[in-house]
Amino acid sequence: MFKVASGIFSVFLIICYFVVFKALSKVRQRQNYQMLLAKNIYMNRKISILIALFIILIPWLEGCDSTSEMQESLSPNSNTSEDKSDNETITLSQICNNNNVGYQINYPQGWQTNPGTVISPCQIFDPQSAIVPKNTESIDKAIYLRVEENVTFDLVTKENKHERHLSRQMTTIENRRAMKIESESTGKALLPSGTRTYSYIIDLDNSTLIALTYNLAGDRYQTNKQVLDRMMKTIKFDS
Known about the structure:
This protein is an alpha+beta fold. 37% of the residues lie in helices and 27% in strands. It has an eight-stranded mixed sheet with strand order 1-7-8-9-10-6-5-4. A three-stranded antiparallel sheet has the order 2-3-11. The longest helix is centred in the N-terminal third of the chain and has 68 residues, at 2-69.
């Protein structure tokens, strides 16, 4: 009788062991599932944050890209930053007048301007010589001013097949509408391909004034740009 009771008790212990083991396994599985679920929730939150940051940064990245290709400002009275170390040596102590167009402008001490024997005076400026031969298309001087008669401001400022605009900036000069443009030649006109031009274009109502400098071999292009910036601040029109 004792043996029978001992056997039954042993079977009972074995059954209890399996029941407890199975229950513990379920508990562990549940704990593992909860841990996995928590990890998934954490990862999903991180992914959501990264996606949100990416969406926020897209417009900023697009703005940087467009700015690197072309900077265009529509705010009046804005001026290009100048290199103060170079500009400290530039003194615009000389003045010339062009009565045909009706403007007065300062230009650097020691520079020359054309006397008006070939074209109207006060249109060419250079530290060496501002004299140009007759019937030639001179582009080797430092700074040029010219007037396009009966040509609208909008037409002159429009990009065309002869040049590609690198930068455009609206401004005002003497309360007149103006635009500052740096462009690169396509080689389909007078200028060799890749030649850069830095220009101010000023609306004179029935005509358009263009002041510019070219980036030719051996030229002091950056310095000439700074001189042109300074000169444009001194120009005065008769009316």
